[in-house]
Amino acid sequence: MEYILQTQKLCKKYGKFKALNDLTINVPKGSIYGMVGRNGAGKTTLIRVITGLNNPTSGEFSLFGVKNNDGKLLETRRKMGAVVETPSLHPEMSAKDNLIQQTKALGISDEKLDDILKLVGLANTGKKKAKNFSLGMRQRLGIAFSLVGDPEFLVLDEPINGLDPQGIIEVREMIMRLNQEKGITILISSHILDELSRLATHYGFIEHGHVIKEMSAEELDKACRTSLHVNVNDTNILAEVLNGMGAEYRLYSPNEADIFTPMQVTPLVLALNEKNCFVNTMSERHESLESYFMGLVGGVHNG
Ligand SMILES: Nc1ncnc2c1ncn2[C@@H]1O[C@H](COP(=O)(O)OP(=O)(O)O)[C@@H](O)[C@H]1O
Ligand SMILES: [Mg+2]
User: Residues in domain ABC transporter (predicted)?
Assistant: First the structure.
């Protein structure tokens, strides 16, 4: 497999604190790579190191196969676009005029700007000034900035953070378009896990500056267990019956539970009925990305 970004035991220390601790990550060419971790896990630190805003303390990384200590890295970084901090927009200018400023600053032609505006879904904003944009529109204009240099690799630090549901859908669709129509490899970080599911093709789970698990969406799908979700009148009785069967389960409330051990439904319902435990509803469920991550790291998710 060809990789756009690889890191090898990357460390970044602030004083004695290791914000990145032997972090190893592999971003395949053509992927949408979801970097998932709680607040403070080290996501922004990693992005700052690979974009050149910070130097690593030790370890190495390569971008498009070029190592971080290679003189060619600076030139290679031109193939990468990133939105790390909120980019500074000109509030009194339209989306297109903002982009024209950006092309001037970079000394490149502005012939592709209409294409870029279309890609980020801002083609119809005309003379509307950036200061009157919604947060989602501003976020997408920020991403448009990073597209001006025609990148093959796009790095987005929590692009969905703070958006309303409509804004989330728009940014997700834009990310899909950039990946599918333009073939851009995308690294996207988030602490809100379910925003990345159905979007990412690969995942890296990061905790305390370390990647604890890397997997493809397919592998994740297989790893997430299917459960039988039940609503009953008394989960205490349910637990008693399931214990008797040696089944694995999780109780959520006096009425709700998930049963993980595959089993026949009829004998279970009959056994429950005998003890006056009545089943209200029953449905098959797929474990969510959130729940899988919780199982990996343990503890309460603080997102
Ligand atoms: N400049 C800095 N000086 C000291 N500590 C920092 C600095 N930047 C980040 N950190 C610490 O490094 C850890 C990782 O931060 P960060 O990469 O921003 O996490 P994330 O983006 O996953 O929320 C946090 O504990 C944070 O407080
Ligand atoms: Mg961050």
Answer: 5-233
Q: Which of 44, 208, 297 is the pocket-test mutation for ligand 1 (most atoms within 8 Å of CB)?
A: 44
Task: Classify domain 3-222 by CATH number.
Answer: 3.40.50.300
Closest CA to 2 of 25, 23, 30, 24: 30
| R_g (Cα) of the chain, nearest Å | 24
Do 49 and 58 form a contact (C-beta atoms < 8 A)? no
Cβ neighbours for 266, distance < 8 A, ≥ 6 positions apart: none
Q: Is the pLDDT of residue 303 over 60?
A: no
CATH 3.30.70.100 fits 225-286, yes or no: yes
Range 200-225 average pLDDT: 92
User: Using CA atoms, how far apart are residues 195 and 34, in angstroms rounded to an integer?
Assistant: 10
Instruction: Please give the single-letter amino acid code of residue 265.
Output: V
Residue 291 above 80 pLDDT? no
Task: Give the residue-averaged pLDDT of 223-246.
Answer: 93
Which residue's CA is the closest to the ligand 1 atom numbered 26? 40
Taking the C-alpha atoms of residue 296 and residue 303, their distance in angstroms, rounded to an integer, is 15
pLDDT for 107: 82
Looking at every residue in the chain, the average pLDDT score rounds to: 91
Quote the DSSP letter at residue 133: S
CATH 3.30.70.100 residue window(s) in the chain: 225-286
